[in-house]
Every structure is written in C-alpha cells, then in structure tokens.
Amino acid sequence: MFATLRRCPASLSRNVSTAAFSYRVLRSALSQSSPAVWRTPARTPTVTIAAFHRSAIRWQEVAASATAEEVEVDNTLVTKFEDLKTRGLIHPNIVDTITRDMKLTTMTDVQTRTINEALSGSDVIAQARTGTGKTLGFLIPTVQKIISENPELGKKVRGYKRAKPNDIRAIIISPTRELAEQIAVEAAKLTFNTGILVQVAVGGTQKREMLRKVQREGCHLLIGTPGRLADILSDPYSGVEAPHLNSLVLDEADRLLDAGFDKEIEEIKKYLPDTKEVDRQTLMFSATVPRDVVDLVRKTLKPGFHFAQCVKEDEVQTHERVPQKVIHVKALENIMPTLYEMISKEIKKGEETGRPFKAILYFNSTAEVTLAAKVFAMLTRSKRQMFRNRIENNENPFSRTRTYEIHAKLTQAGRTRASDSFRHAESAILFSSDVTARGMDFPNVTHVIQVGLPRDRETYIHRLGRTARAGKEGEGWLVANPLERNEIGKRLRGMKLSPETSSEIAHLDLTTENELPENVASLIGKVVDAHQDVDPEILNSAFLGFFGSYQWHGDKEGLVEMAKRWALHGWNYSSTPSPPATLYNSGRRGGSRGGSFQRSSGGFSRGGDRQSSGGFGDRRSGGGFSGDRQSRGGFGGDRQSRGGFGADRQSRGGFEPRGGYGDRPARGGNGDRPQREGYGDRRSGGNRYSKPDYA
C-alpha cells in the first residue's frame, strides 16, 4: 500500500517573521483527513499568519498551490509490536520484553502514530494526553536509537554492567519527580534484557548520591527534571556529560513551560553537542499546543519535523463524559464523617459489583492531605477502632482497602513508594496534593474526590482526568463547604455538577444536641476518636493551613469562627492556636492562645440518657486502651521536652483536648488511666458520639 509523502517546498516566502508560526497552523495541517503525511519544510521558511488562513481549507489551498516534491513511500503503519521485530525495526530483545514480559501485543493510536514516524529519524511533536501509552511511544524509538549506534548494547550483560558517566546517549526531561520516576520504571522494564543503563536525576534527592551512582555505573539513558538536569550538566566537577547525545525527549512540554522551566531547558541545551556536529532526534509530547509550545518547537525541533495530532477534534474530553457530583456539607466538621460514610458505601458497592473501589482524594494543602491520611489510617488500623468494631459487631469496610498519601513534603523515596503501591493496589485510597494531578497514570481509578474547591477550572479538570482512563468508567465528587457555595459557579463555569444528597451526615448540624440513628452516631464518634489519636502537630498545621487556603474569602472573622467550630466539634478540642497574623490586612489577630479545655456537656444523643454512657467502660478501672504517654508527649501530661499540645502551651497557643486525653504519664498497653474521663464516666462530657454502655 502506497501513499504520497508531500514536503512543503523551500520556495515559500522567506521575507517574513517566523514568530507568527501558530498553533492553528500545526493543528490544521495535521487534522486533515488526507492520508498524506504532512511535514514542515526541510528548510524552514519564514511564514506569517497571513500566509496561512486560520481554517484547514486555507492551509490546504496554500499547500496545494506550492510546488510539492512527491516521494513514494510504504505508508503501511505497524500496529503490532511483534511486527516491529519481523520487519527488523526494533531489536528482538526489546520486542520480546514488550510482548512476553509486559504482555502487550497491539499499539495504542498514539504509539502507532509516533513510533512509526520516530523510527524514520524525523523529529516529532505529538499532541497526546496521559494514559494513552505515550511513554512507550517515545521510549521504544529512543532505546532503539541507542542500540542502533552501539549494537552491543542490545545484548544483556551478565554480571555487573558498567558504562561511563559521559556515555549518555539520550535524555528525557519531565516536569515532575513523580513522572520522571514513573518513566524510569518503564524504561528499566523495557531495557531489562539489554545492556542499556538507565539513571534518574530528580530534585528532592541527594545530588551527591545520584552522582556517585552515575560515576560508578555510568549511564546511557538519563531521565530527570529540568532543574536537576541543568544542575548536574553545568557542574564541571560532576563528570556527567553527553558529548554523543543522539536523542532528546521533552514530555509534557506544555506543563514544562507552565511551570516556568523554559530557562532550564535552554540551559540544558547549552551543554548538549551541536546538532551540526552530532545529529540529534528530538521528540516532544504535549497535551495541548499553545503558542509558547509552538515557540519551543521552532527553537528545538529540526526542519521537516512531523506533527502527530493524537487528540481528535470531536473527541469528548474526560470532564465532559465523567459523571460529576457535588456534596454540600453544612460545615467543616461534617467533611471527614461524610467522606467516611460515602467511601464506606462505595467500598461495599465495589465488592458487590466486582469493580474494587480505588480513589484519589485531592486536597488544597499539604497539611490537609496529611491530616486526612492520618485520620483514615486511624479509622482503618488503630486498636481503638478495631476494638470498637468488635464491640459493635461491625465489619471494617476498609479491611481490604489500603490508604496512602503523597505530597511535596514527603521524601522522594516516600513519594515513589506511595505512588507505586497505589498503582499496583486493587482497592486503595490515595490522599494527594496536586503533585499527581497531571502526567501521572494510575490504572483503574474509579473515583476522583476533590475536597474543597480547587483554585481554578484547569486544576479541577486535570484532577478529574485521573479517572475514566483507557476506556474505563469513573466518576468525580466535589465536597464543598458553605464558604465555597457561591464560588463554584464562578470557578467551574461549564462543569456539569449534579447535587449528591444521599449522605445522612453532610447536612447535619453537629453543634447541637440531636437524636441520631445509632449507625450515624457511631460513625461520627469513630471519626472524632480518630482525630484524637492524630499527632497534635498535624492538627495544628491543618488548622493554620485552613486560613491560607481561604485567604480569598472576605469574612475573616467568619473564617476564625468556622475553624474554631471545626476543632471543637470535629476534633473534640476547644482551645486552638491563633490564626496567622497575615489573615487580617489590618494586622488584627483573633482566636485563643492556648488555655485549658473545659468539657461541654452537650452533644448528640441516640435517644437515651447520655449520663449513663460509658464509652469503652469506666476508664478508672483500666478499661479500653490506655497507656503512659509521657515519652511521646501525647495530648496532656508534661510536654515541655517536645513543645507539643497540652500541658504548658502559653508560649504557642496550641490545641487542648476536650477531656478526651488527660494526664498520660507514659505510653503503655492497657494500663490504668485514672485521670482520663474520655470514655468512662461521661457525666462531665467526653466524646459525644461514642456508643453507650460498652462496659
């Protein structure tokens, strides 16, 4: 099967500026239905927007009026990985790894469009979204190019493999550490049966350790983030050089530019060999092709590059086809119990339908991520909750669902471990900041739950894009508090959000005495208990972080009152730190500065006399889980060695529990806790949601 390959002639006008080379030109040129492969001119002409009408029709007219060079080429595209071997395009060891070890047989559309073209030696820019197989789309031709220049690398070396630190043949630039690590994992799999050495250079890790590894083992394929790559290549003492580099890959090009990495990219290019002396292939992938990406294309790709548009004009985007729901909660203290309630239902539903629940929960601050992760960890694994479930004869819905957290403040090893564990888990919850919102591919995510209104529409869409991938179904939830009700329509204009009203807890007023069904009161009690088991430093960070997330809100006094109510009724704490001084433009400060907590006798009831509630039994007799916590500096006791919460905190103004944890002189197993009233004699208050008469 043959088709015509047309190249735009060099005779096009050269007397105008290349700055006008626009995204619409790229897009219209490649979105035609013609089977011809369109390329940029072999010698780059300077073309204005006037030379190309904005429509695809005008582009066709201009191209048709030019003198075209016709070349007969075999246009039969390879779509099966095995055919890459039979045609001699890819080394057999690479193909065998793909088909035998990775269990892949047929290429995705993105892989078909990019691999075939890249193997011809052309520079390629591909407009492709994450989750479409684009990683292999650039790894396969990159690895093959390395082997083509040194066939010995196609064979697996027995024993210790070693190269030189200046033997780098390919560099892949990624916008984030997580994405770079993910690419490196795929590269290691792909090159397992070869002699190619893969190294990673990302921020957040020890530069010295990374350099030692490269100097000791050498490197053929280097994958990293722009800042770290620029750092090590510009360091004259690193010994890391790329004088023979033949491949450069820029993944998520639009995101690289959005993050302001254009200077780092130019810096990296300074330390690469001159393309006039060493021929280099550049592959660029981007979900969108705005003007700044077009500028980068013009500065980086060789004339005659191929543009593979793998996003169809009429393709329905994720946010247009995924069901989206908004859960309006009455107050901040309703959020965690509502999440626990709704997620528990979805886990059970997944067990019934055979599609395990797997969700990413996005929060707007690192402190919120950490708090939520710790609370759910307590809900699923703490001795207190296991004991309570046993007393209530309830099965823990989270017994087969793991929880992980990921955010920028974790070490790189911790982030990698969390993302890998979640990626391979069948049923799991990932508590995340926006570090996973773009570029990360997690299979079989059934739900994306955004807690709090994201900063803009684009962030909302990118987060939502983590579900319903690879033809799978998914859904999105937005949990919104009263502060955000009027803001949703402004920030998320055009999003089709339908109200979700099935929650029994979302609309409850947790500040008043109410009669609740036993299961609802028990669930709320579990969540409050879990907060009391969380390190107060984490609570402190979440409390203060709240004000940063809502700096845009005009009613500062209202924010303070809402936050104090959150701590009082959601965590069982009455004394809170002062809000940050920056909250008030006038410099006024609010909130309390430490102080001791006085129990409130009000609370939820299940219809009985609350004074007979015994929680986990009378704690004076040693019931429940107690312990001497002096060494940890729990929620009370002498905490001077740690400067924590409780005890003498006038200097900091931290949290004090509402009687939930009294003097804890040491941390033991189930010892005597004479001063703790939390779940024993409840006449003075305690956790208002605990189930009565456990003793």
TrEMBL record:
Domain Helicase C-terminal residue range list: 338-524
Region (Disordered): 577-695
An annotated Gene Ontology molecular function: hydrolase activity
SMART domains: DEXDc, HELICc
EC supergroup of this enzyme: hydrolase
EC number annotated for this UniProt entry: 3.6.4.13
The keyword RNA-binding appears for this protein: yes
Source organism, top-level taxon: Eukaryota
Biased segments, Basic and acidic residues type: 673-695
Residue stretches making up the Helicase ATP-binding domain: 115-307
Substrates-to-products reaction catalysed: ATP + H2O = ADP + phosphate + H(+)
Record Pfam families: DEAD, Helicase_C
Alphabetical UniProt keywords: ATP-binding, Helicase, Hydrolase, Nucleotide-binding, RNA-binding
Biological role: RNA helicase.
Domain notes: The Q motif is unique to and characteristic of the DEAD box family of RNA helicases and controls ATP binding and hydrolysis.
Family: Belongs to the DEAD box helicase family.
The protein, known as: ATP-dependent RNA helicase
Naturally occurring in which organism (per UniProt): Delitschia confertaspora ATCC 74209
